[in-house]
Amino acid sequence: ALTAGIVGLPNVGKSTLFNAITQAGAESANYPFCTIDPNVGIVEVPDIRLNKLTELVKPKKTVPTTFEFTDIAGIVKGASKGEGLGNKFLSHIRQVDAICHVVRCFADDNITHVSGKVDPISDIETINLELILADLESIDKRVDRVAKLAKQKDKDALAEHEVLVKVKDALEKEMPVRAIEFTDEELKVVKGLHLLTSKQVLYVANVGEDDVADPSSNEYVGQVKEYAEKDNAEVIVVCAKIESEIVELEGEEKEMFLEELGIKESGLDQLIRTAYHLLGLATYFTAGVQEVRAWTFRKGMKAPQCAGIIHSDFERGFIRAETVSYDDLLAGGSMGAAREAGKVRLEGKDYVVQDGDVIHFRFNV
Ligand code: GDP
């Protein structure tokens, strides 16, 4: 499964946020196929469409799709020099598919800040610098090898060498790889390098309780947003402390509490949704009387591959996908009505599944 790693300096609110994630977390009893790793938090992806489909179809059971966060602890400073837990920290980051970087934007004199004062940009740069240095090291190793081949007029090596030099120049200016513009050809080379700073980043600005309703009054949030723009990253605002209270609530109680706070959606729900999109994930549904269910797929996947997410037999014996978009189904009011309106399509093996498709797979066993 794809996972987003949670990183941040000490005392910024990582554990508070991660605890909220695991508490909100899907009961592992419901997901026996998921490994129970204390550093992994499995959450259900909130999706209003699933609720609407449930109202429409009235199934026996509704199953949301899930998403994983990994808590990446470890000493950050000096990581690229392999100090302390540093190497471990980097190897954990290497394994995640996107990075959620928690940044302290709350002032609280009772909570020590590792560098003495609240300064989100300096915090961000501390971690990013370690990642940049680690990437530079990987590039340097590779450049030497490729340079030799390039001298022998090896065409691929020449092309790769150019890309490596371009990446190296940017990294030396402390620019992460995700902020560099590449041609499609260059991008192929870059992907093969598996660099840490090429991963997508979401900055999670952790504000104090008083700033939740109107984060624009928090100057640190503004700084993080400005930074993220040139860093080609996204930003969401949460209050980890309040999130740990929200997860205790459900349904109406939760809605009332959010209203009191003056927010539409919990920070955790926003975090899940944003990380999900950052990873290029999307959702299709199956909707039968037994079960209405949301399934996660990667954007660009074709119908047979998507069928394979449910069961490998579905992919092997794929015949076609009876597909209706969520909007068409809802507008029709029932599967039958959507069919009569000609909105149910029979899609074949080359169909690229779209977010919100409601699908019934036909297959041979
Ligand atoms: P970590 O070291 O990054 O995992 O940070 P923790 O989650 O342990 O948080 C460090 C301290 O900051 C704890 O005492 C938390 O209660 C506190 N804290 C976390 N989030 C907030 C917040 O939004 N507001 C305030 N006032 N304190 C917070």
Automatic annotation (TrEMBL):
<dbReference type="InterPro" id="IPR004095">
    <property type="entry name" value="TGS"/>
</dbReference>
<dbReference type="GO" id="GO:0046872">
    <property type="term" value="F:metal ion binding"/>
</dbReference>
<dbReference type="GO" id="GO:0005737">
    <property type="term" value="C:cytoplasm"/>
</dbReference>
<feature type="domain" description="TGS">
    <location>
        <begin position="280"/>
        <end position="363"/>
    </location>
</feature>
<dbReference type="InterPro" id="IPR031167">
    <property type="entry name" value="G_OBG"/>
</dbReference>
<dbReference type="InterPro" id="IPR023192">
    <property type="entry name" value="TGS-like_dom_sf"/>
</dbReference>
<dbReference type="InterPro" id="IPR012675">
    <property type="entry name" value="Beta-grasp_dom_sf"/>
</dbReference>
<dbReference type="InterPro" id="IPR006073">
    <property type="entry name" value="GTP-bd"/>
</dbReference>
<comment type="function">
    <text>ATPase that binds to both the 70S ribosome and the 50S ribosomal subunit in a nucleotide-independent manner.</text>
</comment>
<dbReference type="InterPro" id="IPR041706">
    <property type="entry name" value="YchF_N"/>
</dbReference>
<dbReference type="InterPro" id="IPR013029">
    <property type="entry name" value="YchF_C"/>
</dbReference>
<keyword id="KW-0460">Magnesium</keyword>
<dbReference type="GO" id="GO:0005525">
    <property type="term" value="F:GTP binding"/>
</dbReference>
<feature type="binding site">
    <location>
        <begin position="11"/>
        <end position="16"/>
    </location>
    <ligand>
        <name>ATP</name>
    </ligand>
</feature>
<feature type="domain" description="OBG-type G">
    <location>
        <begin position="2"/>
        <end position="258"/>
    </location>
</feature>
<comment type="similarity">
    <text>Belongs to the TRAFAC class OBG-HflX-like GTPase superfamily. OBG GTPase family. YchF/OLA1 subfamily.</text>
</comment>
<dbReference type="Pfam" id="PF06071">
    <property type="entry name" value="YchF-GTPase_C"/>
</dbReference>
<dbReference type="GO" id="GO:0043023">
    <property type="term" value="F:ribosomal large subunit binding"/>
</dbReference>
<dbReference type="GO" id="GO:0016887">
    <property type="term" value="F:ATP hydrolysis activity"/>
</dbReference>
<protein>
    <recommendedName>
        <fullName>Ribosome-binding ATPase YchF</fullName>
    </recommendedName>
</protein>
<dbReference type="InterPro" id="IPR012676">
    <property type="entry name" value="TGS-like"/>
</dbReference>
<dbReference type="Pfam" id="PF01926">
    <property type="entry name" value="MMR_HSR1"/>
</dbReference>
<keyword id="KW-0067">ATP-binding</keyword>
<keyword id="KW-0479">Metal-binding</keyword>
<dbReference type="GO" id="GO:0005524">
    <property type="term" value="F:ATP binding"/>
</dbReference>
<dbReference type="InterPro" id="IPR027417">
    <property type="entry name" value="P-loop_NTPase"/>
</dbReference>
<keyword id="KW-0547">Nucleotide-binding</keyword>
<dbReference type="InterPro" id="IPR004396">
    <property type="entry name" value="ATPase_YchF/OLA1"/>
</dbReference>
